[in-house]
Specification:
Blueprint (H helix, E strand, L loop, with lengths): L1 E8 L7 E8 L5 E6 L7 E4 L1 E6 L1 H8 L2 E2 L6 H10 L8 E6 L12 H8 L4 E5 L4 E4 L1 H4 L9 E2 L4 E3 L1 H4 L1 H4 L4 H17 L2 E8 L1 H10 L4 E7 L3 H7 L5 E7 L27 H14 L2 E6 L2 H13 L5 E5 L16 E5 L1 H8 L11 H4 L5 H6 L3 E4 L13 H4 L10 H8 L1 H6 L17 E4 L14 E6 L2 E4 L6 E2 L1
Parallel strand pairs: 5-12, 6-7, 7-8, 12-13, 13-14, 14-15, 15-16, 16-17, 17-18
Antiparallel strand pairs: 1-2, 1-22, 2-3, 4-19, 8-9, 9-11, 10-11, 19-20, 20-21
This protein binds zinc ion.
The site of zinc ion has 4 residues, from loops.
């Protein structure tokens, strides 16, 4: 038996306990919880689960050009022209967000060609739904590929999201990158993920066998192949899109955007029914990206016709006008992103350029989802990765009516994030019998420590130290 003594402990439910000594058995499960005096400073909690990431994509980003900090188009192109050329000869830049640039104009195709001097390059927007490529790369993309604008070098939706299917990253390189990202995930307190992947990467992840607990969603474009080959060990969902994003003005919001435009859901009734049928045949659930209220209603309608398929709604930012669409706690769960609040919902944020103030306030209504008895799990969608970077968006939501308490917010990023990923053994509070997936925070948010000042001191997965000083566990 090994022991971990902490001065403060939150089991995942109820009040914070003072002075607890947890016994961890050889099987990696908690065997005992006893009061003690003293113990390590900080707060021991169940470890985090990030219910919505794109793990292979994020891993690739880690080894590629980081464009998240650039402030204008030329700075991005300049960085790319100086970047080392990777083994497959293709420069990949990730994470640009022109809404944060001093001048939000995207670079023209001519300008990209001029600065990059004929080296093939792609720049993927932070949302993943839009990318820019130069002429050298355009020449490599087959004629007739949907979502490719050859005049401007812009790739949208499938062309952008599916880029790595056209140009697969060498498998060994990807696995090395994923190993690095796994270590990074542990350092952020995360021991479980729900990851949305193409089938090739999903299979690669299954073969690699990560230490992270992993639930996979496979993009609907691969649904037929998934059905032919069987879902494998870790695939739990087909991932589909009912609409686009606020960033690209194609979230299917209620009524109009500020510029007078409107947008219908991307997937019509027939397409949604097909997706439900495919999920049912593959014996998996469905994860549906649905941001706008019209998209949410369309999913609720399709779900009514296929009640045996469990559906996870991704993002659900404009949930308020769709609260009465017919949600049921036993077959609908929600995966939402508190970091989106921090990033886009604060005064002057991107949402305000899309919708009037009164509608912006109502976005990301976390408390409403909970008050309807629906399961809410948090995920970062990698923007940025790291629960502690997002939680303030839940507890300091600009609309006080939608704020969560510290307990509700932590629960959504631990037990309930595990729940919406199907890790049922982690969806219960820490008690004897539960896997010892734990995280020691440097300070206690229940006592008012601000999220941005809280660090991760140690992380345990199945009772093994995966981050921090291994000597922290006392052997006995
Ligand atoms: Zn996503």
């Amino acid at each position: 038996m090994r022991f971990l003594a902490c001065s403060r402990f939150w089991p995942g439910k109820g009040p914070v306990l003072n002075g607890v000594r947890a016994g961890i058995g050889p099987g990696g499960r908690v065997e005992s919880i006893e009061p003690c005096s003293g113990g390590l400073p900080g707060l021991l909690i169940p470890s985090f689960v990030d219910a919505h990431v794109h793990f292979s994509w994020k891993a690739l980003e880690l080894g590629s050009l980081d464009c998240s900090g650039v402030r204008c188009a030329d700075a991005m192109l300049d960085a790319a022209s100086r970047a080392p050329v990777p083994e497959d000869g293709l420069i990949r830049g990730f994470g640009f967000d022109e809404s944060s640039w001093d001048d939000p104009a995207l670079p023209t195709l001519e300008r990209m060609d001029e600065v990059l001097g004929g080296r093939p390059a792609i720049f993927t927007r932070v949302c993943g739904h839009v990318a820019l490529v130069d002429s050298a790369l355009l020449a490599l993309i087959p004629e007739g590929t949907p979502g490719v604008d050859r005049e401007t070098g812009r790739l949208t939706e499938e062309a952008s999201l599916g880029f790595n299917r056209m140009f697969p990253v060498p498998g060994a390189h990807l696995v090395r990158s994923m190993e690095r990202l796994q270590e990074h995930a542990f350092s952020l307190g995360v021991t479980g993920i729900g990851s949305m992947e193409h089938l090739r990467e999903a299979r690669l992840i299954e073969e690699w066998a990560p230490r992270l607990r992993t639930a996979l969603g496979v993009f609907s474009g691969d649904a037929e192949e998934l059905e032919r080959r069987g879902p494998g060990k870790k695939v739990r969902w087909i991932k589909a899109f009912a609409d686009g994003t606020f960033g690209s003005w194609n979230a299917a919001v209620d009524g109009n955007y500020l510029d007078g435009s409107s947008c219908a859901p991307m997937a019509d009734e027939g397409r949604l029914s097909e997706l439900f049928a495919a999920a049912s045949r593959c014996r998996v659930g469905l994860c549906v990206h649905a941001i706008g209220a019209r998209a949410l209603r369309a999913v609720a309608d399709a779900s009514r016709r296929a009640p045996s398929v469990r559906v996870r709604l991704e993002h659900a930012e404009e949930f308020m006008p769709a609260v009465d669409a017919g949600w049921h706690g036993n077959r609908h769960s929600f995966c939402m992103q508190p970091n989106f609040v921090r990033r886009w919902q604060m005064p002057g944020g991107m949402y305000e350029s899309r919708l009037p103030h009164s509608r912006v306030r109502e976005l990301n209504p976390f408390r409403e989802v909970l008050s309807r008895g629906l399961r809410l799990g948090f995920g970062s969608d990698g923007m940025p990765f790291g629960p502690l970077k997002g939680l303030a968006g839940a507890t300091d939501h600009p609309n006080p009516a939608q704020r969560l308490t510290v307990e509700q917010a932590l629960r959504a990023y631990t037990l309930d994030a595990a729940g919406v990923c199907g890790f049922e053994d982690l969806a219960a509070p820490v008690a004897p019998g539960r896997p010892a997936d734990l995280c020691l925070l440097s300070a206690d948010p229940f006592s008012g420590a601000p999220w941005e000042e809280i660090g991760v001191k140690a992380v345990f997965l199945d009772g093994e130290t995966v981050f921090g000083d291994p000597g922290i566990l006392e052997e006995e």
